[in-house]
Amino acid sequence: MRSSSSTLSAAPSLTMSKPSLNNSKASLTHSRQSITESNKEPGPPTREEKIAEFLDKAKFYTSLCLGTTAILSVFAFLFLIPFVVDPAISTIVADYDPVPVTCVVTDHVYSEGRRNCTWSSCREGCTTEAIRCHQLLVNYTKIAYHEWQKQPRDLDNVEWDVMDTKFLVNTEGCGYPPRVNCTEFAKKYGYSHVGEPFPCYFSRAYPEMVVARYSWDDNLKHLILSLIIPNVLFAVSIGVLSYWYCPCCDKACHKSPRVYAEKYPTKEK
């Protein structure tokens, strides 16, 4: 009786373990299939995937170039303000007579040292103090130089409009090579050329200001280019980057044209 009862008690346990065994076999089979699928080599990318990858790379490199352009535009504009923009505005304010008049150098002094160079007719470099300087003084008459060439006058009998005024290479009296070369400037107007008539430009706003070079067209062209080019490049670069990466700009550009009330169903619907 004991053996039969033990046999009866063990039978249910064997039948209860069969479902768990089947589940373990199924999980083992599923894990083997997943391992087999993971070990398979991925297929070649489709045409759409290649295009998407190419567009992502192009967008990345374009964004890098635009960011660099925006930064360089800011630095270029800050650099152009003291060297181009400010002198151009000063030239416009001075209101030079576009027709060259007749000038004569009356004195040429070459000095060295900061104390002796309180001013200079020509200075190479607008941000540093002049240690060596050429100081030229001129007389000028409002007789046009082309008329003077046609009918020369005796210098002793000419009634000069302004006498012994400072003569500058340009409005600022300074510049950078190769456009401004103070040695060549002194050789052209000073030394042995003292007392020789030459064309110059006087300021109608400040009659005591006389310069050797002036061109309204060149001055205006440099001013416009220095203002437009850096600012346009900066605005375009920042605009494109904002459109691509700014969430607010993206929402504003892709905003639905529907009215807010139209998004909800009507009473009849």
UniProtKB/TrEMBL annotation:
UniProt key word Membrane: yes
UniProt biased composition (Low complexity): 1-17
Keywords of the record: Membrane, Transmembrane, Transmembrane helix
Organism this protein belongs to: Culex pipiens pipiens
Region described as Disordered: spans on this chain: 1-47
Residues that span the membrane, as ranges: 60-85, 223-245
Protein name per Swiss-Prot or TrEMBL: Protein tipE
A Pfam family hit: TipE
Keyword Transmembrane helix included in the entry's annotation: yes
Biased composition (Polar residues): 18-37
